[in-house]
Design brief:
By secondary structure, the chain is mainly alpha-helical. The chain has a domain of 105 residues. The chain is 59% helix and 0% strand. The chain is built from five helices and no strands. α1 crosses α4 and α3 packs antiparallel against α4. The longest helix is centred in the N-terminal third of the chain and has 28 residues. It is globular and about 45 Å long.
Length: 153
């Protein structure tokens, strides 16, 4: 039973991060916290950005849930922590490394999903200002950005 509870928590943690990330990105990062997030839209190089503070905050949430689920053992909370940490790890690899090429990785992915992700993110970065902008998530990509769509940016 605990295995299924951890699995369910993990799925909800991962999916919840896409939802939470979208809301935080649209309403806080492109709102009152733009002064931090703009370092991501106007990068100065390949090093750290002030925007990386958000990764630390989300990472802290994941670690809090993960470690809090271990002692005493709380399978659902442990699963949430695993899901949040997995989301953050994949976000780091796909967003920072492959989409923005902040770090060199051996072999970039080129499938249709990755191409849609890159198109959506380019549309998001089309403006150097907080607004207007679009496509605030990472995993749920609007159909117009998928390969073969005539309205691709």
């Amino acid at each position: 039973m605990a295995v299924w509870t951890v699995f369910l928590g993990g799925m909800l943690g991962f999916g919840g991060m896409e939802f939470l990330g979208w809301i935080v990105h649209k309403y806080l990062m492109h709102g009152p916290l733009w002064f931090i997030h703009r370092t991501h839209h106007r990068p100065s190089g390949r090093g750290l950005e002030w925007n990386d503070v958000f990764s630390l905050a989300f990472g802290g949430l994941g670690l809090y849930l993960l470690l809090g689920g271990l002692d005493p053992f709380r399978p659902f909370q442990l699963g949430l922590g695993i899901g949040v940490c997995l989301y953050g790890t994949l976000y780091f690899v796909l967003h920072d490394a492959w989409v923005h090429r902040r770090w060199v990785l051996p072999r970039p992915l080129n499938g249709p999903y990755i191409q849609a992700m890159i198109r959506a993110h380019r549309a998001h970065h089309a403006s150097l200002n907080a607004k207007p902008s679009e496509s605030y998530g990472l995993w749920l990509i609007p159909r117009k950005f998928w390969p073969g769509r005539t309205s691709n940016p």
